[in-house]
Amino acid sequence: MKINDNKSIIIPIFIMHSGCPHRCIFCNQKIASGYFHAELKKNIFDAEVDSYLNSNKDKTKKVEIAFYGGNFTGLQPSCQKELLSWANTYISAGIVHSIRISTRPDYITEEILTLLKNSGVTTVEIGAQSFVDEVLQYAQRGHDSIAIVKALRLLKDYSFHTSLHLMAGLPKDTKEGFLYSIEKTIELKPDMARIHPVLVLNNTVLADEYRQGKYIPLELSEAIELCSLALDKLSAAGIRIIRFGLHLSDEMKKNGAVLAGPIHPSFGSLVRSSIYFRHALKLLDEIPKGTRKIRFNLSSYDVANFRGFNNRNVAAIKKLYPKTKIVIESFANQERGVISLADDTGILIRSNISLMV
After folding, report:
1. Spatial separation of the C-alpha atoms in residues 97 and 76, rounded to whole Å
2. Residues whose CB falls within 8 Å of the CB of residue 230, separated by 6 or more in sequence, listed in order
3. 172: left (phi over 0), alpha (psi -120 to 50) or beta
């Protein structure tokens, strides 16, 4: 069976803060990742992997085991080798295709990368969070921006696939600072990126600062704006964003777990749909307000992003054009990221969104 490398299933294995030298001011892994066993045993690992494999109906997807939730390369080398050997059992059986890990930039050395390369790891995700040194220092990250640059360059020297994790709305950060971090990311050219806005999780230093009025989290609209700007810039540079926002674990859904911040179950959808809405408005600027009928043509894969969460984009367009019939036509063979708009005279206007999807 031919495996489609463009479609993948990731099996997350959380090592729950293991290997981290300290806790950053925003971090509470139990809430962020959900409840997992503090000490990972092989029977627990196997049960988790088997559960995902049994639920995967599309056998053409590439399957990756991913070690998340801690600082993998901060673990003792013997522990790293043991965990990777468990994953390699599935690779040898031909039912898992690769391994990825997440770690800190200041725990990347040639010795560590040799170990990872020899143990079947193909992708390394780096928790950068920001390239502004003042922001990193205040967040108690324990490293500076130079460490991020060195780590990414070394990973590329060893031919790993790379991903950078950034956060929007960190204490001491600004819109300009966040966009600076995006520009630095573009300079380093990782293969992928993750971005999520800061949420105030209970039992963290940041929670204490929030209660004292020292930290004001982003509003949802502010977070969407920042992340949509990031998506525009990173997509134009050929860097794919693989996730916006944290996955809402069962722990996060509990009352009092998340004290504040731009939390939303479909945050990534909000970000992408905001860009589609912006492009739709640009097209509508070319159409007189008295037009009786307008027709949007787009790929069937883009319809959800175009319509927006709970159809809010379409509702907003209808509010702007209350006397106009709005028609949305989708085509499976149309190029993704291209919106065409025609008025009742048949004049066609196009807008290319050019997102990495």
Report:
1. 25
2. 166, 168, 178, 179, 182, 193, 195, 241
3. left
- C-beta of residue 309 within 8 angstroms of C-beta of residue 253: no
Q: Where are the alpha helices (DSSP H) in 212-299?
A: 220-236, 267-284
Give the pLDDT confidence of 75-127 residue by residue, as tens digits: 999 999 999 999 999 999 999 999 999 999 999 999 999 999 999 999 999 99
Using the CB atoms, write b or e for 19-47: b if 16+ within 10 Å: bbeeebbbbbbbbbbbebeeebeeeebee
Q: Crossing angle for the helix pair 220-236 and 267-284, nearest 10 degrees?
A: 70
CATH architecture designation of domain 4-265: Alpha-Beta Barrel (3.20)
The token pair that represents 46 in the structure block: 């196997």
Class assignment of domain 272-352? Answer: alpha beta
Residue whose token pair is 């999520």: 196
Q: Report the C-alpha gap between 348 and 141 in whole angstroms.
A: 51
E-assigned strand segments in 161-256: 161-168, 192-197, 200-201, 240-244
Q: What are the extents of the domains in the chain?
A: 4-265, 272-352
As a whole number of angstroms, the distance between CA 98 and CA 55 comes to 18
Segment 322-344 mean pLDDT: 87
Alpha-carbon span 233 to 229, nearest angstrom: 6
**pLDDT grade, residue 215 (50/70/90)?**
very high
Report how far apart the first and last C-alpha atoms of the chain are (Å, whole number): 25
131 Cβ neighbours under 8 A, 6+ residues apart: 145, 148, 180, 181, 184, 185
Q: Which residues contact 83 (CB under 8 A, 6 or more apart)?
A: 13, 15, 40, 45, 67, 72, 75
d(CA 248, CA 265): 7
Burial degree of 302 (CB within 10 A; 0-12, 13-18, 19+)? buried
Specify the pTM. 0.90
Token pair belonging to 13 = 């294995």
Q: Which residues contact 137 (CB under 8 A, 6 or more apart)?
A: 144
